[in-house]
Design goal:
This protein is of the alpha+beta class and 167 residues long. The chain folds into 2 domains: 1-32; 34-159, Roll (FAS1 domain). Helix content is 45%, strand content 21%. A 7-stranded mixed sheet has the order 2-1-7-6-5-4-3. Strand 5 and strand 6 form a beta hairpin. The longest helix is centred in the first third of the chain and has 31 residues, at 2-32. It is globular, with a radius of gyration of 20 Å. Residues 32-163 form the FAS1 domain. One of its GO terms (cellular component) is extracellular space. InterPro entries: Adhesion/Biosynth-related, FAS1_dom_sf, FAS1_domain. Pfam families: Fasciclin.
Length: 167
């Protein structure tokens, strides 16, 4: 019985050590990915990936940065009026799509703690976004639903709506 208990404890300790090491390695690996690679790896952001590729912005989001991306979830794109996303993904609307997507990006690394201290921020597109942290955190009319996804070249916050600049 003593031998069995010793083997059981040894196996349990080794298993916990392996799981802890794997989790730690995974955490460090995610911080080595850039913004684009991190978005690609997130199944809740597949529509955003399609839009980024259509606008040919992969290189920008893989760039040195740092950047802060307010990333609309797949559900956020569903909220657009019917036909809007399909229209934006057409080749002839590449510049309009790029303007909308760069409106979701701010130069610099802004964690959630940084964002709540601001009432606006200038986007890479050139216009300001309005930040309201009086009841949760809103970026224009979108609610931040997940924060502080750290990447090698910035940070991602997931939002529940696509925010649109005045175009």
């Amino acid at each position: 019985m003593k031998v069995f208990l010793t083997k059981f404890i040894s196996i349990a300790v080794l298993s916990l050590t392996y799981m802890s090491t794997s989790a730690l390695a995974s955490h460090h690996n995610s911080q080595r990915l850039d913004i684009f690679e991190t978005v690609v790896a997130d199944p809740s952001l597949t529509t955003l990936v399609t839009a980024i590729r259509a606008a040919r912005l992969e290189g920008t989001l893989k760039g040195k940065g740092p950047f802060t991306l307010f990333a609309p979830s797949n559900a956020a794109f569903v909220e657009l009026s019917e036909g809007t996303l399909g229209d934006l993904l057409n080749v002839e609307n590449k510049q309009k799509l790029a303007a909308i997507l760069t409106y979701h990006v701010v130069a610099g690394k802004m964690t959630a703690a940084d964002v709540v201290k601001l009432n606006k921020a200038k986007t890479v597109q050139g216009d300001d976004i309005v930040i309201d942290s009086s009841d949760g955190v809103k970026i224009n009319n979108a609610t931040v639903i997940k924060t502080n996804i750290m990447t090698s070249n910035g940070v991602i916050h997931i939002i529940d709506r696509v925010i649109l600049p005045e175009i």
